[in-house]
Amino acid sequence: MGRIIRQRKRMTNFLIIACVFIISSCAGLGIYPSAQYEFDQGLALFNRGRYEEAVAHFQKATEIDPEFAKAYLYLGRSYLNLAQWLNALAPLRTALRLSPAETRKEVVGILLDALFGAASHELKKGNFKGAIGFLKEALELQPQSDRASKELFEAFMAFGGKLLSEGNPREAIGAFSEAVKLSPHTVDAHLGLARAFLKGGDLLKALQTVKDALKIDPTNKDAQSLFREFMRR
Question: What is the pTM of this model?
Fold first, then answer.
């Protein structure tokens, strides 16, 4: 009887050791079968256009395996397809950080879509600072992006105009100055900056900025009108 008990104990110990070895081996290889299962379930739903249901599976996959780049990517894509721009940003940023060089371009493109969507969403709410932050991130991500540069310029111009209308020339000067940096040959940016200087009481800078606008386009009627206004002072 004692020998049988000892044999059973040895067998139990052997099984425990074997299980520990298998688990350790899987962990060492970065294998998370349950994470892959959740991802596959999510992908099947994603491919059928059932994005809201897919989100839960991709989210679970990232919880099981925090280094699962593709799960983060598809989680972000699911949110994008649901027009949930802000929710898409965090997983897409993580996907970019984890992605190998060969897939980085794809992830950058998708993250840019999320940033543009988030910026548009914030602009509609009148949150210029939030929109500008997202557009700056987009331009940093892809410095050659004409779209990012153009939309950031337009956001600064709109923000500057709003600040001027609210009687805040100091911050308006900052917004229009950024617009001028982004598009130094655009007359309207210089005129906006000139009006901000004028409203802030800095006549010399306002006059110089109007002159800069006229150098760009001597025939611009708004610039000519503003210059004549200074001459009458």
Answer: 0.81
